[in-house]
Amino acid sequence: MDIRYFDNAATTKVKKEVLEAMFPYFCEQYGNPSSMYSIGRNARKAVEEARRKVAELINCKPNEIYFTGCGSESDNTALKGIAYQNKNRGNHIITSKIEHPAILNTCETLAKNGFKITYLSVDQNGRINLEELRRAITDKTILISIMFANNEIGTIEPIKEISQIAKMHNIIFHTDAVQATGNIPIDVQKMGIDMLSLSGHKLNAPKGIGALYVKSGIEFQKFMDGGHQEKDKRAGTENVAGIVALGKACELARKNMKSHIEYLSKLRDYCISQVEEKIEDVKVNGSKENRLPGNCNFSFKNIEGETLLLKLDAKGICASSGSACSTGSLAPSHVLLAIGLTSEWAKGSLRITFSEDNTKEDVDYLVNNLVEIIKELRKNNA
Length: 382
Hints:
By secondary structure, this protein is of the alpha/beta class. The protein folds into 2 domains: 4-12 and 257-381, Alpha-Beta Complex (Aspartate Aminotransferase, domain 1), CATH 3.90.1150; 16-253, 3-Layer(aba) Sandwich (Aspartate Aminotransferase, domain 2). The protein is 43% helix and 14% strand. It contains 14 helices and 12 strands. The strands form 3 sheets. It has a 7-stranded mixed sheet, with helices on both faces. It is globular, with a radius of gyration of 21 Å.
C-alpha cells in the first residue's frame, strides 16, 4: 500500500541534498570541532559555514545563532535564560494560550519558581489581541514570548506589531518560529525580533538539531554546564553532521521560498475547498488570510478524531489531530478550545500539512477517503 504523508508539521523528510551534505561528517570529516588538528579544523569550518547559512535565512549575523538539540531546547534556553538573567529587574512574562507545550510547560516551571505568567487569549482565528497585550504589560514585565505561527491551526501572529509594543516598553521579545522558519519569509531585523527558536526536522533536516537566534547585546543565562561550546552558552560537543544538515536545509529553504509558498498554498486552498464542498458539518480552524501555506485544520461534527486517524491510516494516509507533542492525551486540543470550539467539535479535529512531495492527486485521494470514512462513522454514531 502506498503511503500518503500529510503530517509535515510533525516532521519532514530529510531532503536528498541535505543528507548528502551531512554524510561526510560521519565517517570522513569526523573530527571534534574543538580539536586543533586538520579534521577538527575542517569540522569547525563546516559548523561556522552552517551558522552563516542559518543566519542568512532569517537575516541576522552568524554570531547571533546558537546551535541547540531541538526547538524545545531553544525555547527553554530563551525563556529560562532571560527569566533568570533578569530576575532582579522583574518577574513577569507574557505569552499566549495557544503556545506549543515547550513554551507552556516551561512557563509552568518558571511559575513554580516565583515568576508570574500572563496567558493572552486569542480570537476565533487564533490571533492575539494587541490591546490585551498592551494592558498586560507591567513595570515587572521582562519578556514577551508569542509564537510566529501556530503548529495546529497554522495562524500567523502579528509579529512586527508585537515587537513594536515590546520595544516601547524595553521588553525582550522572543518568538517560537519552529513552524514558520522555512515556510514563510522571516527577517528578524525588519520585524524587530530579539530571540527566535527554530528546529531542523521541520524544514527537511534531521531530528536532533535546532537553533536559537539571540540579538547581539542581549544577555541570557545558560542552563547546561560543561565545556565552552557555543560561546560558553551551550555545553557539549557539537552535532557537526546535524549542524551541517540544518545549514543546507536553510540554504535550500531560502533559495526555494517563493515556489514553496506558491505550491503549498495552492494545495492548501484546493484541499480546504474540496472538504468544504463535499463534507457537511465541518469547520475550518484558523485564519484563512494569515495562515501557513501548507496547513489545513478541520473539525468534523459527531466524529472522534482518534478513530478518524486510525481509519485514514488503514488507507495509507498519515495525518494528525494536532500537535505531535500532545499525542497520547485524550483531552481536546488546548488550541481549539482557546479559539472557542466546544469540546465536541475540538475532539473531531484533523490537521493536514503538506510538502512539495504532495500532489493534487494526493489531495483527491485524501478527500475521497475522508468523505467515505466520515459517512461511515456518522452512520455508526447515529
